[in-house]
């Protein structure tokens, strides 16, 4: 005589958070895409009640071979803004520099990501293809996302290089930023993306541009400390092209 299996009563696992994730990757850098996919497989991203990343590859704009409209990204930039935060020996303000094809392509790639976020209803994670996720990524991210949303954040940096003292500690491990470098990993809310689009064109390397909007209080950005994401290899040491 067969018996139906008994239901095991207990606590239901908390719902997992699904987070749309755009990964910026050049078509000619399939090696970087493969490397990121391999690193993602190494990280246990999903536990009951944590975060599920919905990965989408966003083909990056190639500044060498593709036209980048000046309405979205400028052709040159002045070092004065960045010099307020960059204390390297010999670095100074008041210097006009030509934006390199790589800088313009990178900026345009992020602009295209912002457009997608602005049209969304929920925050979106933007990753560059040299991102390295920490072991506690999923567990900490869900908590920090909810805290940041409650604080009405417009951007949440998961990886960063800090150019100034924190403005304020908002929660344990969550700080209001004044000026940050790198765009390796940040969550952007639709209202934050819309603000950035209204501030176009990007008139300096994109991480400097974002940092300046924070400094001028046009973008309310928080950062997770310690970082949830770092950069692979040389990307970490160069601190992004704007540095």
Major sheet details: 8 strands, mixed
Write out the strand line-up for the largest beta sheet, numbering strands in chain order. 2-1-5-12-7-13-10-9
Q: What is the string of helix and strand elements?
A: EHEEHEHEEHEEEEEEHHEEH
CATH fold title: Spore Coat Polysaccharide Biosynthesis Protein SpsA, Chain A
SS class: alpha+beta
How is this structure best described in words?
The protein is of the alpha+beta class and 243 residues long. It has one domain: Alpha-Beta Complex (Spore Coat Polysaccharide Biosynthesis Protein SpsA, Chain A). The chain has 7 helices and 14 strands. Strands 2-1-5-12-7-13-10-9 form an 8-stranded mixed β-sheet, with helices on both faces. A two-stranded antiparallel ribbon has the order 3-4. The protein has a two-stranded antiparallel ribbon with strand order 6-14. Helix 3 crosses helix 5. Mean pLDDT is 89; it is low at 1-13 and 234-243. InterPro entries: Glyco_trans_25 (IPR002654). This is Glycosyl transferase family 25 domain-containing protein.
Provide the fold topology.
Elements: E1 17-25, H1 30-42, E2 51-59, E3 76-78, H2 80-83, E4 96-98, H3 101-118, E5 124-128, E6 131-133, H4 137-150, E7 155-157, E8 161-162, E9 168-171, E10 174-176, E11 180-181, E12 185-188, H5 190-198, H6 206-215, E13 221-224, E14 229-231, H7 234-238
Parallel strand pairs: 1-2, 1-5, 7-13
Antiparallel strand pairs: 3-4, 5-12, 6-14, 7-12, 8-11, 9-10, 10-13
Helix pairs in contact: 3-5
Domain Glycosyl transferase family: 21-170
InterPro entries: Glyco_trans_25
Organism: Effrenium voratum
């Amino acid at each position: 005589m067969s018996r139906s299996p008994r239901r095991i009563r207990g606590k239901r696992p908390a719902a997992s958070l699904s987070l749309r994730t755009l990964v910026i990757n050049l078509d000619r850098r399939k090696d970087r895409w493969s490397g990121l996919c391999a690193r993602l497989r190494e990280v246990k991203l999903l536990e009951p009640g944590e975060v599920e990343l919905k990965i989408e590859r966003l083909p990056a704009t190639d500044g060498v071979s593709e036209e980048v409209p000046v309405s979205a990204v400028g052709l040159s930039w002045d070092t004065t803004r960045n010099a307020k935060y960059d204390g390297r020996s010999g670095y100074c303000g008041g210097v006009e520099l030509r934006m390199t094809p790589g800088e313009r392509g990178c900026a345009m790639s992020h602009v295209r990501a912002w457009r997608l976020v602005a049209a969304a209803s929920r925050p979106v994670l933007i990753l560059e293809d040299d991102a390295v996720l920490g072991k506690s990524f999923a567990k900490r991210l869900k908590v920090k996302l909810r805290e940041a949303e409650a604080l009405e954040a417009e951007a949440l940096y998961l990886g960063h290089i800090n150019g100034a003292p924190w403005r304020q500690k908002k929660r344990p491990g969550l700080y209001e930023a004044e000026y940050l470098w790198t765009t390796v990993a940040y969550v952007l809310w639709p209202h934050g993306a819309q603000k950035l689009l209204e501030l176009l064109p990007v008139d300096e390397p994109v991480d400097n541009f974002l940092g300046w909007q924070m400094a001028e209080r046009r973008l309310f950005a928080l950062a997770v400390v310690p970082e949830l994401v770092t950069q692979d290899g040389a990307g970490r040491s160069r601190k992004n092209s704007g540095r």
